[in-house]
């Protein structure tokens, strides 16, 4: 199984590469006023707006550093109805991949209902890598802000009259 690696602070994390549609450089982002914590705005991807989440802001309370290795990982994310959407995840040092079996990841021994997206860990020569479950990344309220059915109607040109 192939994983895309990235960092949040000093810690390393992994995403299942099958969920990643593209990895982009840090593009211009249209900010969204009064957006929930972690939601930094939207990017233009092939003419379509894609919401962007700063994983450092969401998890550590600070913005990701603007470096050459800071990337936007476009992932497939399902809304409450199971409809797939692109979601941009901004993360530092998103430049490595790792091929390992899913069974090599083990429970960290720590659970926290506040961060259900934190999965099992894998040890390598540089320390632990924690698997992030994309489908559990957003709270229900943030998911609804980004992907509520009314938002799709607006996006499809059915604006309020």
Describe this protein with a few key phrases.
9 strands; globular; mainly beta; 161 residues
Describe the overall structure:
- Helix content is 13%, strand content 43%.
- With 161 residues, it is mainly beta.
- The N and C termini lie far apart (49 Å).
- The radius of gyration is 16 Å and the shape is globular.
- Strand 4 (39-45) and strand 5 (48-54) form a beta hairpin.
- Strands 1, 2, 3, 4, 5, 6, 7, 8 and 9 form a nine-stranded mixed sheet that branches.
- Helix 2 packs parallel to helix 3 (149-155).
- It has helices at residues 55-60, 140-147, 149-155; strands spanning 2-8, 11-16, 20-25, 39-45, 48-54, 71-78, 84-99, 118-124, 127-132.
Annotate the secondary structure layout.
Elements (H helix, E strand, L loop, with lengths): L1 E7 L2 E6 L3 E6 L13 E7 L2 E7 H6 L10 E8 L5 E16 L18 E7 L2 E6 L7 H8 L1 H7 L6
Parallel strand pairs: 2-9, 5-7
Antiparallel strand pairs: 1-2, 1-7, 3-6, 4-5, 6-7, 8-9
Helix pairs in contact: 2-3
Can you give me a brief rundown of this structure?
The protein has helices spanning 55-60, 140-147, 149-155; strands spanning 2-8, 11-16, 20-25, 39-45, 48-54, 71-78, 84-99, 118-124, 127-132. The chain has 161 residues and is mostly beta strands.
- What is the helix tally? 3
How many E strands? 9
- The SSE order reads EEEEEHEEEEHH
Distance between the termini: 49 Å
Fraction of residues in H or I helices: 10-25%
Average pLDDT confidence is: 89
Global shape: globular
Q: Could you say which structural class the secondary elements and strand pairing correspond to?
A: mainly beta
| Fraction of residues in β-strands | 35-45%
How large, in whole angstroms, is the Cα Rg? 16 Å
């Amino acid at each position: 199984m192939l994983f895309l690696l990235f960092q949040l602070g000093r810690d390393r994390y992994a995403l299942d590469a099958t969920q990643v549609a593209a990895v982009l450089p840090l593009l211009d982002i249209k900010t969204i006023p009064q957006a929930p914590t972690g939601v930094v705005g939207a990017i233009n991807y092939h003419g379509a707006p894609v919401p962007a989440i700063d994983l450092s802001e969401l998890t550590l309370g600070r913005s990701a550093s603007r470096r050459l290795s800071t990337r936007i990982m476009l992932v497939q994310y399902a809304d409450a109805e199971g409809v797939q959407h692109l979601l941009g995840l901004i993360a530092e040092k998103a430049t490595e991949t790792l091929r390992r079996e899913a069974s090599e990841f083990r429970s960290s021994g720590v659970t926290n209902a506040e961060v259900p997206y934190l999965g099992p860990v894998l040890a390598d020569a540089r320390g632990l890598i924690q698997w992030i479950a994309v489908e559990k990344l957003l709270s229900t309220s943030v998911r609804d802000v980004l992907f509520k059915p009314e938002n799709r109607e607006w996006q499809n040109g059915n604006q309020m009259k």
